[in-house]
UniProtKB/TrEMBL annotation:
This is Phytanoyl-CoA dioxygenase family protein. PANTHER family: PHYTANOYL-COA DIOXYGENASE DOMAIN CONTAINING 1, PHYTANOYL-COA HYDROXYLASE. Its cofactor is Fe cation. It holds the Pfam family PhyH. It comes from the Eukaryota. InterPro entries: Phytyl_CoA_dOase-like. The lineage of its organism: Eukaryota, Metazoa, Spiralia, Lophotrochozoa, Mollusca.
């Protein structure tokens, strides 16, 4: 991928129509290897927790509230990630949170159908001026539980969400109806590829039935003008916090693989 790629009119039209765009090779092999040094560090892994699905299998997560100054922070603050989101959302964004999502071989479970705004609406965000960047750390294929999206489903607006096992899932009857008009797409990615998607896109992912681990860096952004209002749950993720963006080259130039100060890792909490 050209590291100076631009959001062209065609890409913006694709995002508006489908709710997502795929950027191949957003991170190269060297950058992905640097990310792995961070996410495999014991001081990061100690914050990992599971979210069991209906069948008792569980995908695992690590969540942090602020980007920090390590390599993963440089990715979240980089021009090719953060500024791309600003162009797609038409305005300044800030880092809402980042998750490392892991599906271990054979035991990594399903994420039920949901919209990210299904959660974030309850956290005091008035508008769906939010999006997520899903960066594959390992190959994401059907066999190891790649993301699946309903193309164009963001146009349906916010769907009611309920507790499903220990996850929050969209109303199943509504999802089934939407799938009749919005095609299901399996988003198969190579390591370093990225999916940029709108917060109202319905998405899910299946079990990892392979012997290959599936990890993804999942970075959420909120528009600066959409800082959560003061209500129960509004402090679950940060309000507007100025994002200090960096050049793309700062990802490779960063040698911080061990200092995670300021990231504010999350301890597992009940779903609401």
């Amino acid at each position: 991928m050209n590291k100076r790629f631009e959001i062209t009119g065609d890409l913006r039209k694709e995002f508006d129509q489908n709710g997502y765009i795929i950027i191949r090779g957003l991170l190269d092999e060297e950058e992905i290897n640097s990310v792995k040094k961070v996410i495999e560090h014991p001081d990061v892994l100690k914050f990992q927790y599971g979210r069991p699905d209906l069948h008792g299998k569980e995908p695992k997560l690590i969540l942090w509230q602020h980007p920090g100054n390590d390599v993963t922070g440089m990715v979240a603050r980089s021009d090719k990630v953060a500024s791309t989101c600003e162009k797609l959302l038409d305005g300044e964004v800030y880092h809402y949170h980042t998750k490392l999502v892991t599906k271990e071989p054979y035991i990594g479970g399903t994420f039920e159908w949901h919209q990210d705004y299904g959660y974030w609406y309850k956290y005091g965000c008035l508008y769906p001026d939010m999006m997520t960047v899903f960066i594959a750390v390992d190959k994401c294929k059907k066999e190891n539980g790649c993301l699946q999206v309903l193309k164009g489903s963001h146009k349906c607006g916010r769907i009611e969400h309920l507790i499903v096992a220990e996850q929050t899932g969209a109303d199943a009857d509504r999802v089934n109806a939407i799938e009749q008009v919005c095609p299901r797409v399996h988003v198969e990615l190579e390591a370093g590829d990225a999916l940029f998607f709108h917060c109202n896109v319905l998405h899910t992912s299946g079990d990892n039935i392979s012997d290959n681990i599936r990890r993804a860096l999942v970075i959420a952004y909120n528009k600066a003008s959409n800082s959560p209002i003061n209500m129960p749950g509004s402090t679950k993720h940060p309000g507007y916090t100025k994002l200090h963006k960096v050049n793309n080259a700062d990802i490779k130039n960063c040698t911080n693989f061990t200092d995670f100060s300021g990231k504010d890792f999350w301890k597992k909490q009940p779903q609401i």
